[in-house]
Design brief:
The complex is a heterodimer of chains A (353) and B (391). Chain A has 353 residues and is α/β, with parallel strands linked by helices. Chain A has helices at 2-6, 8-11, 13-34, 39-46, 72-85, 98-106, 121-126, 169-179, 192-200, 211-220, 249-267, 275-278, 284-289, 296-299, 306-314, 317-324; strands spanning 49-54, 62-63, 69-70, 91-96, 112-113, 129-131, 136-138, 140-145, 159-164, 184-189, 206-210, 228-230, 238-240, 243-245. Chain A has a five-stranded mixed beta sheet. The radius of gyration of chain A is 21 Å and the shape is globular. The relative contact order of chain A is 0.14. By secondary structure, chain B is of the alpha+beta class. In chain B, the strands form three sheets. In chain B, strands 1-2-3-8 form a four-stranded antiparallel beta sheet. A two-stranded antiparallel sheet of chain B has the order 4-5. The longest helix of chain B is centred in the last third of the chain and has 35 residues, at 356-390. Chain B is globular. The mean pLDDT of chain B is 85. The chains are: A alpha/beta (353), B alpha+beta (391). At the A-B interface, helix 2, helix 3, helix 6, helix 7 and strand 9 of A face helix 2, helix 5, helix 10, helix 11 and helix 12 of B.
Chain lengths: 353, 391
Amino acid sequence: MKTLFKSGLVKSGLVRSGLAAAVLAAAATFSAAAQAGPTLDAVRKRGEVTCGVSTGIGGFSIADSSGRWTGLTTDFCRAVSAAVLGDAAREKFVPLSPQQRFTALQSGEIDMLTTVATWTLTRDASLGLLYAGVYFYDGQGFLVPKSLGLKSALELDGASICTATGTTSELNLADYFRANGKKFTPVVFEAQNEARAAFFSGRCQAFSADMSYLSSVRASDAPNPDEWQILPDMISKEPLGPVVGRNDLEWFTAVKWVLMALIEAEEKGITAANVDQMKESANPEIKRLLGLTGDMGQRLGLDPGWAYRAIKRVGNYGEIFERNVGPRTALRMERGANALWTKGGQMYAMPTR
Amino acid sequence: MSVVAIAPTRVARGWNDPSFRALATQVIVLAVLAGTVAFLATNLVGNLEARSIRTGFGFIWQAAGFEIGQSFIAYGASASFGRALLVGLLNTLVVAVLGIVLSTLAGFVIGIASLSRNPLVSPLARLYVELVRNTPLLLQLYLWYAVLTQMLPAASAAPQLLPGVYLAKSGLHFPVLQHGAGLILVAALVGLVAFAGHGLWARRRAELTGAPAKLWPGLLLLLLPLAAVALDLAATTSFDMPRPTRFGFSGGGMITPELTALLIGLSLYNAAFIGEILRAGILSVSRGQLEAAAALGLTRGQALRLVVIPQAMKVAVPPLASQYLNLAKNTSLAIAIGYPDLMSIGNTIINQTGQAVEVIAILMSVYLTISLAISAFMNWYNSRVALKGAS
């Protein structure tokens, strides 16, 4: 055993990925028979929704000193749990590295991935999973020291750029620099925290990741936030959304519509604070959303109060945004593309009818 | 045999026949094992299909789409996943081979130093061994990487150590020859042949005349052609010099801090173990051997080189082999400090393609092949050393 533990294979990602693959293999082998009831039934029986989250990104999913998770993506998990499980809503957060997250969902270890995973064709079509919508429109950018005096990412010709593996960032970097006929040297780390440590030590001139993550890093990891700037160039589209398994369309639909309900609530001005008064509203759309008329919940396989409870628990989409990543938080992010469609953004809920 | 003669009674048949029973048991165990593996494999493939997860090794020929920071062969984002894996394999092999050479050299020094009678050298060597082998390798790698990236100057303030040689956070930059590398190889070859020829001649002369063979004429012969070619090249061809740019250097050759940290970390860590292995090997040679060597008039250095170490190697080679295997596998820790080894690139490919089962299978078989090759070499070396000792 001594030599086994000494060997790097145990410590390194090989075994972790190997274990994940073995778990996937085992789960795929044995769960085919056990998977009679869909995810919703399993969640109800367990009394708990299991969500895969990022290991620690301020504003999106991060655990505080008492172990409580906060963030935009964890709030979405809470909303789903409230909609599905009623007043006894409980959720379990499973922190996952970028390499582990899809395998964990494929193997059924988690019910839903609420992390900062970009929606791409390959992931949607060939990994055995489905994206249930977008809760954050993001894009990849660059964090650089202000002392370099850069105006645009195109000036980074010949620079070393630190980034983390297991993300779309590596691909976007290669595409962007190739398209513009520029050169760069990637320095790729297994984990985001090692990549940004190397960046802050001066190993690279730029750190590349999703803009949301860069804001989070500048706010909470930079030695002095004012000495660092995020370049204005957005080199990719990074729509982040909840991901579910491909094997259960009822669950997929329920998760998708919880997201719709949160956006619809913002559009209709329903907040966590006023949702009870809103029940008195004469607006038929609000009445339908809050389950006072119609059978919207039943059609989703849920009860009439599903959207009411989700809004009551975490607030509408705008509240979630402001609380976790908005201008008044350390991340200082503007709504931008994440504003409602009525305010020039892209957040648009399909009609609840 | 006499027992059989006394009691020839009945011949055991079926389950009572021990050899039949042994054979049957093995066949059954093998069948159960093969059946289980086949069952799991077919189920896996079927279920991956049922969950519409892509399977198969077709992705190897598709364009990888990502860049790699260090490559010994031509590679770009439009190259295939297979080529990316090859780049990773070469990066891993470079670290493994260099690591084995460096850790063996350092281990030799430490092993002999810890047996030294000098009151300062021996405790220092012991302290080194205890310190290094009792802390996790991963931690040491982080330490070396932090030392290299935190303490070295930024590229803009990098000192010029020699003309065209810079040491900065981005690595060690040095000039490389634009052409004429082949000439150097030829010169090195000529030098080596001359060195070996002189060695043979000197040994024969030493046997005939008793005068001790000198080393320096041989070294001179070895280096002379190299020096001549180097002078010629320096005068005629141009160098590709590292040029300072806004973000560091372009052109020239470079050794990245990731590679350096990994090499230093792996070599120093394994050197502690190898030092212990060699110390044990040397201690296993009885004291009488040393005394006999002294009685024959050999100096202490000669006795060590000609008498003790050849015998110590016989004991040391098997544990040395497993230490080398450890080193080769530990190269996969590279991923923690940003060196693009096989494991790191494999991880990236898993994430791009989502085909964890296939990529893990490839990685495992590659590491297995590397390990088996090292094992085979060490077994061969072991048998050579053993035969030499016995004859």
